[in-house]
Design a protein that fits this description.
12 helices; 3-stranded antiparallel β-sheet
Length: about 375
């Protein structure tokens, strides 16, 4: 017994018609009636607003039934070194990976897949990079994050582009994007500004076996970052170790007194040594300074005692010199008075004046003459 099977296809749909499990064609929107034994007619519907045909037989159908599918489907086969940019009505909506086979529905909305050869040129143009960065499609944003290596090189920096571990080029300040497919892309950022390195808490023995703890500060700049990157795995770590070794070498060849008396000489020795070592790697050392020389507790006590004794000896020497000078001055004064009675009387009056300054009351019993007896006998002075 025959049955009539009614099939309705919506305006936004297309349908694959199968008769006895064999592809019979594509059904456009409308109503269809087929005489069908149970299970003889099969229809698969697709929403064409989703653009892509998601069917396990998609490639087979468009390749085998070219005449039946040509007006409804567009197929794209990308090579292993081609990127596909999918446009919907002129707007970029997705990125298609190399080697992909895609089938899209034809309809009122224009679908186009543009190919980009990445076999040699894998850097993304600034115009396309800006377009990808402003993508309004969630699918495009997700695809871009998965397929693009993006980096920004700041001012006063330079980027070292490494592709599959090989140094390719230097990147000046700006935005860059690279396709990840078939390549391992890495950009290392190097600061071209003056950098500081701190070597702190170094326990070192001097030439005379005194243990010191020192802190060192230095400033350097990468003048040739490409050379530094190619020759050194991590030049910051290398510089720290070299400063550490130079500090130990310089301190170990000097006594404690030499270090304390001339710290600038220590800085110069370290500077000369480090410049010879790092100059061949494109790095210049601008300044080196030993900030702190910290003595152990017992050594501090000893040095304080030494300093105290030296200062006491200096003070005693100054005191003796002053006493000698004072005695010599007194001797000279006495020599002058010895042959000059008037000068002697003036000196006596000066002494009397100083004595009277310390006396509050003076009781005179025999007159001024008695007070001045044998001290001042000049009548002209007593008047």
């Amino acid at each position: 017994m025959y049955f009539v099977k009614k099939i309705d296809v919506a305006d936004n749909e297309r349908a694959f018609l199968f008769k006895k499990n064999r592809f019979a064609g594509v059904l456009e929107p409308g109503r269809y009636r087929y005489i069908d034994l149970p299970g003889n007619i099969r229809v698969e519907r697709f929403d064409i607003t989703r653009h892509e045909l998601d069917h396990n037989l998609g490639k087979f159908l468009v390749s085998t039934f070219v005449d039946q599918t040509r007006d409804y489907l567009e197929a794209y086969q990308l090579s292993d070194y081609e990127i596909g940019l999918l446009y919907h009505d002129g707007q970029l909506i997705d990125i298609v990976a190399p080697g992909s086979f895609k089938v899209y529905w034809k309809g009122p909305e224009k679908i186009e897949l543009k190919r980009i050869d990445i076999s040699e040129e894998f850097r993304i143009s600034n115009a396309l990079l800006a377009l990808l960065g402003r993508g309004h499609s969630a699918q495009l944003i997700r695809s871009a994050s998965q397929t693009i290596y993006y980096t920004e090189v700041e001012d006063n920096h330079v980027g070292i582009l490494l592709v599959n571990g090989k140094l390719e080029s230097l990147l000046q300040p700006g935005s860059y994007g690279f396709w990840k497919f078939h390549r391992n892309v890495v950009v290392k950022h190097i600061d071209l500004r003056l950098q500081n390195v701190e070597v702190s808490g170094q326990e070192i023995l001097t030439k005379d076996r005194v243990s010191l703890r020192l802190n060192l500060s230095a400033a350097y700049r990468a003048d040739d970052p490409q050379l530094a990157q190619s020759k050194l795995a991590d030049f910051n770590d290398y510089l720290y170790r070299e400063f550490q070794l130079q500090l130990r070498e310089a301190v170990g060849t000097k006594t404690l007194d030499q270090l304390l008396n001339d710290k600038d000489a220590l800085n110069q020795v370290i500077t000369d040594g480090i410049r010879q070592r790092v100059g061949e790697y494109g790095i210049s050392v601008k300044s080196v300074g030993v900030r702190d020389i910290i003595l152990p507790g017992d050594m501090k006590t000893i040095l304080n005692q030494v300093v105290e004794a030296e200062k006491a000896a200096e003070a005693n020497l100054i005191k003796r010199r002053e006493e000698t000078a004072a005695t010599r001055s007194l001797h000279n004064t006495a020599k002058m008075m010895e042959g000059n009675p008037t000068l002697m009387r003036l000196k006596e009056l000066e002494v009397l004046e100083k004595v009277t300054e310390r006396i509050g009351n003076i009781n005179v019993y025999s007159g001024l003459e008695g007070v001045m007896k044998d001290l001042v006998k000049s009548p002209s002075v007593l008047k």
